[in-house]
Design brief:
This protein is mainly alpha-helical. The chain has one domain. The protein is about 75% helix and about 5% strand. A hairpin with a 3-residue loop joins strand 7 and strand 8. The N and C termini lie far apart (about 65 Å).
Length: about 450
């Protein structure tokens, strides 16, 4: 194993583990904002209690996200020094903005949510709820801007081997930023909504806080259903964008070895990169051309159009891309079933469906990770598409042994962090939504 592979593996591990937490933050911040809005409109204390309950969980998730995210900043200087030196003047701008404008905004006002319910004015608290929601989404925007620039770079020129920023807005809002941002945000909403649904389902199965569990289920199901439907549309839009701006990536997604007019969509298959064929392929004729060109006879470029040294790997992007699509269909099926049961007032008594929600919690995380892996591996062999190869971006002076040691160390540390954080989250969930209104009145008395 060489240093390039180990550096990629280490960054993939640290970034992948960190990426478990931002989507949860996005989704829970939306649910909390909606709960506080309902409390403001109805003055029903159950919404206030549910909000306080989810705030405690959000606080733990946020801390774990911060702890795992800090490592990523140092990785660029340690293992990817050549990357930082070549494109850091452009890539670093949105990362710096994320820290200054988003992280501090979110962290400060999350502190108000966790500790300030009975210490600040109601208007201040509600403003803090909105600013946590806004800060989480603004943070996601900055990160997506940076990552999208790696996929579809714009607004710069190369000078003496370094990227020089020409137009910040062209770089930030490059051809893939908008659709990737919306797609990622909806993934976060799906994740947070399903987590909230699972919490409500657990409370229902345990026969605890029936009215609060029902209210939480109703709200989170609505968010989940809307997000699942919209995600299908943004996923399609993203595929159209990839076809236009990174055609070799789409060819890898579909294991399309040769250019075709009226290309088929591969439902299932096992890519054989050595022989450039897909074994056990199940295809829908002309469907890929129809989806990405809105023309059943449209031409879709295959991998044969690109030099072998510029082609991405096929097996991993193909598998993760199709898994993501499968999960998306599962989410829609869950949403339809949930809405159907809710409309017939059978959701709370359907123990089978409630248990299914508990089992389904890992699925949005797998979908998020799968989408990220497909996007990043599908960009290879480029660190910045058509600008800087991954092999040229790694630190030249860091030996493979050092990278391997740090990889093992990070794996052990992240395993401990994950186990501890997961245990604390479960303990917080088991406590249930306490009667925060009664506690506040007792404290005041």
């Amino acid at each position: 194993m060489d240093a390039v592979f180990l550096a990629r593996l280490q960054f993939g591990l640290t970034a992948g583990f960190h990426f478990l937490f931002p989507p949860t933050t996005l989704g829970l911040s939306l649910i909390i904002l909606l709960l506080e809005t309902l409390y403001l409109r109805t003055k029903k204390d159950l919404y206030k209690d549910l909000s306080a309950y989810l705030v405690r969980i959000l606080g733990i998730v946020f801390v774990m996200g911060v702890a795992t995210g800090i490592v990523l900043e140092f990785a660029f200087g340690n293992n990817w020094a050549a990357y930082s030196r070549t494109v850091g003047d452009v890539f670093g701008a949105p990362l710096a903005a994320e820290a200054v404008f988003s992280f501090f905004l979110e962290s400060v006002f999350l502190g108000v949510l966790v500790f300030g319910r009975n210490r600040v004015r109601p208007k201040t608290y509600r403003l803090s709820v909105f600013l946590v929601f806004f800060g989480a989404h603004l943070s996601g925007l900055w990160i997506i801007m940076a990552n999208s620039w790696m996929q579809t770079p714009a607004g710069f020129h190369m000078e003496s081997g370094r990227a020089v920023l020409d137009d910040f807005f062209r770089a930030a809002f490059n051809p893939s930023t908008a659709v990737r941002f919306v797609h990622t945000i909806l993934g976060g909403w799906l994740t947070g909504a399903l987590v909230a649904m699972a919490i409500a389902a657990w409370l229902m199965l345990k026969g605890r806080a029936a009215d609060k569990a029902a209210a939480l289920m109703k709200m989170s199901l609505a968010v989940f259903a809307v997000s699942a439907v919209l995600q299908l549309g943004t996923g399609h839009a993203h595929s159209v964008q990839v076809t236009r701006t990174q055609p070799e990536k789409m060819a890898a997604f579909e294991a399309l070895w040769r250019t075709e007019d009226g290309a088929a969509f591969t439902v299932f298959g096992i890519p054989d990169e050595k022989n450039e064929r897909t074994r056990l392929a199940v295809r829908i004729p002309k469907m890929l051309s129809l989806l990405v060109h809105f023309d059943p006879n449209g031409r879709v470029l295959g991998l044969d159009e690109f030099p072998k040294e510029d082609r991405p790997p096929v097996l991993l992007p193909f598998a993760t891309y199709h898994a993501m699509i499968l999960f998306g269909l599962v989410f829609i099926a869950l949403a339809v079933a949930g809405v159907w049961l809710q409309a017939r007032k059978k959701l709370g008594s359907s123990r089978g469906f409630l248990k299914l929600l508990l089992i389904a919690v890992p699925l949005p995380y797998l979908a998020n990770e799968g989408g990220w892996i497909a996007a990043e591996v599908g960009r290879q062999p480029w660190a910045v598409y058509k600008v800087l190869r991954t092999s040229e971006a790694v630190s030249a002076v860091v030996p493979a042994g050092n990278v391997l040691f740090s990889l093992i160390l990070f794996t052990a540390i992240y395993a401990l962090i994950g186990a501890a954080g997961f245990a604390v989250i479960l303990r917080t969930i088991r406590r249930g939504p306490g009667d925060e209104t009664v506690k506040a009145r007792q404290g005041a008395g």
